[in-house]
Amino acid sequence: MGVTYLSRQKGRNKKVNTELVADHRYISYRNLIRKRELFGMDFLFDEVPNKIVPFDFQTFLNSNEQFVIGTTDCESGKAIYYNKAEHGNDILKIIRASSSVPFIAPVVEYDNRKLLDGGIIDPIPVLKAQTDGYEKNVVIMTKPEGYEKQRNKFSGLAKILYRKYPNIAQSLVEHYRFYNETISYIHQIKQKDNFYIIQPSVQLPISGIERSKEKLVNLYNLGYTDAQYHYENLLNWIEK
Q1: Which among 157, 176, 209 has a CA at the least distance from the CA of 38?
Q2: Within-domain flag for 218
Q3: How far apart are CA 34 and CA 19, in angstroms?
Q4: For 137, which DSSP code?
Q5: How high is the pLDDT of residue 191?
Q6: Pfam family example for this protein (predicted)?
Q7: Does residue 239 lie in a domain region?
Q8: pLDDT tens string 78-134
Q9: Angle, CA of 9, 85 and 90, to the nearest 5°
Q10: What is the number of domains present in the chain?
């Protein structure tokens, strides 16, 4: 998570994502049956940062960088963004909302809103960054070049499971289109040097709900190696 970059805790994300994943409190069907959440949200956003792998809140809050988190408002179906300057003390609650993936996590109530994963309506928030005045943007993708998202085979369930929130239900049906349109936009504007894109050099056989420590470590190592490959070019691009 980006918060760990701002808290200057190198290695913390790796430890959380690889060493705790075997714990049923992290991810399990037990969670899904008992709490209607595949990932243990109380565990991940309370016990882990406050007790097990402590998060340095003070360093995060005192950091000079701006930090913006995207969420999706269930009632309006629109993207809602929260920044560190105004909401830093509630950062874990907001990240929890932003991490609440439909179908496998419950709605989070914050700021008099009912929130879910920000990626539903704005999967790659480059337009938000440009609107905020950032001319050069580094886009870090989780899929290799050429990937095109397909319509989710479960999207038809959205109108049943989220019948109280018709705007969210419709956005879930159209999510794949939002993603693909954003990718097309990035590649169009990339020619103007507005974007530097970092994508996995290879596609590893890994699930979005992966529990294999070996596979997760391999994924981490791939990201580290790919970052080393891009390092010099990225610095040159920034300094242009």
Answers
A1: 209
A2: yes
A3: 24
A4: E
A5: 67
A6: DUF6363
A7: yes
A8: 999 999 999 999 999 999 999 999 999 999 999 999 999 999 999 999 999 999 999
A9: 70
A10: 1
